Amino acid sequence: MAKKYESIKFDYNNMMADHVGEKEGISAQELAAMRNKAVAAHAEVKLNRGTGMMGWTELPYNQGEVVKDILETAKVVRRNAEAFVVLGIGGSALGPMAVFQALCHLRHNELPKRLRKAPKFYVEDNVDPERMASLLDILNLDKTVFNVITKSGSTSETMSQYLIIMDILKKRYGDKAREHIIATTDSEKGNLIKIARKEGLKTFYIPDGVGGRFSEICPVGLFPAAVLGIDIKALLKGCADMDKACRKADMKTNPALTAAALQYLAMEKGKNISVMMPYTDSLKLMADWYCQLWAESLGKAVNKKGEIVNVGQTPVKSLGVTDQHSQVQLYTEGPYDKVVTFIGVEKYRKEVTISGGAEDFPSVSFLSGHTLNELITSEMYATEYALTKNNRLNNMIILPEVNAYSVGQLMMFFMLETAYAGAMLGIDAFNQPGVEEGKNATYALLGRAGYEAKAEELRSRPAKSDNYVI
Ligand code: PA5
After folding, report:
1. CA 89 to ligand 1 centroid distance, Å
2. Positions marked catalytic
């Protein structure tokens, strides 16, 4: 019998004027008036499903063969490798990191091998020379497999890492270097696919229409997850079920559409910051993944008509309860420019009871006998209460438990919410001209052929003045 999974829930009570007051909150009438825009956004997303840069909507359904290959390859890596290292950046790194943090032991790399049951896991998403050198200090290359991931096959950071690692591997293992590197990239475009073919590397393909930040549920994320022993079929089922829950153009039943409409209305009210605040360490990096998705998709200068709009909501990551002691003061009393999204968990995977030992001190001993589970949950609801009392817009996503299925649901929820919000804003949520500009300037600064005009443009920018350097 198929396993029965419980669904995540989206609670938006505290976005509404009934709870946070008429001045800041969204009235039932305002939400009802969003209906036409929401229906149009839903229709646009539905129309474009599986086409252009919306190939990701079909990933829960069209990867049967790919998943088979991933699982077979992962089995071999799990058997032979002590360490598995992802070389990638942005969308080619944040998804693998978020899913690892969500679904593996929180101290995975420190666990003894017999308990870990998978290689140690590292994601190298920066080109800090000290970081690369320190990685090389700790790896046993004989027992390490690298997964170089880049959709464009040309990102300077990732290709630099690849060149460094491949050089070391070739010097040490000659022709057998290829046994230590697996490539994940576009099947046609870019340089990595050409290099991978020349070197005879095992390769996974990033399908057409799947941009970096929407790529976690293709081999970009599924292969590292499978190496870690994560149930990728359950993850994809979670995605599929959330996708199906969002099929209707009805804000009463479609959670991602409602969430997008609420954020759109919040933006109209000047709430240009979206704080993502999970109350579990396992979803800490999910907030980073969300930040990229929301920022890079919605932060745009022009709309689809070519008009200057400069839209977007700045995403901020926060961790409950940790950031109650650093950021929440601002969220409760600072400018009315934020929406806080709590992510709560009904059942943590462990329970820890707070011990006795301070019976003479009632203001400490009241904690004894409670669990950390009760403490963290109470603190989330207490913070929700404090924000709401201060008329701060907030909403909550509740996971019955953090597992592969609920993580799949959560990621699909955010991807669909982003697509709907992009449609409501009238922008292209799937390009990233601002990122490309920086990439091109890097190529020019490092002398890549074909970027001479960009190099000239950079040379002719106004020189910096020493008057402004102290
Ligand atoms: O979402 C995106 O498109 C970007 O963040 C990319 O993932 C990032 O720039 C890395 O690109 P690539 O995978 O082509 O190396």
Report:
1. 6
2. 296, 325, 439
- Per-residue pLDDT, averaged over 388-397, amounts to 98
CB within 8 A of 362, min separation 6: which ones? none
Q: Are strands 308-311 and 300-302 parallel, antiparallel or unpaired?
A: antiparallel
Sheet of strand 181-185: strand arrangement: 120-124, 83-87, 144-150, 181-185, 202-205
Residue with tokens 């689809």: 304
Q: Is residue 437 pLDDT above 90, yes or no?
A: no
Cα–Cα–Cα angle for 291, 148, 78, rounded to 5 degrees: 100
pLDDT-based confidence at residue 303 (cuts at 50, 70, 90): very high
Answer whether 304's CB lies under 8 Å from 431's CB.
no
> Closest residue (by CA) to atom 2 of ligand 1?
212
The response to whether residue 96 sits with its C-beta less than 6 Å from ligand 1 reads no
Rounded to the nearest whole angstrom, what is the distance from the C-alpha of residue 347 to the centroid of ligand 1?
Answer: 34
Ligand 1 pocket, 215 CB below 6 A? Answer: no
Measured CA angle at 108 (ends 71, 289), to 5 deg? 75
Reading the block at residue 404, the tokens are 């592969």
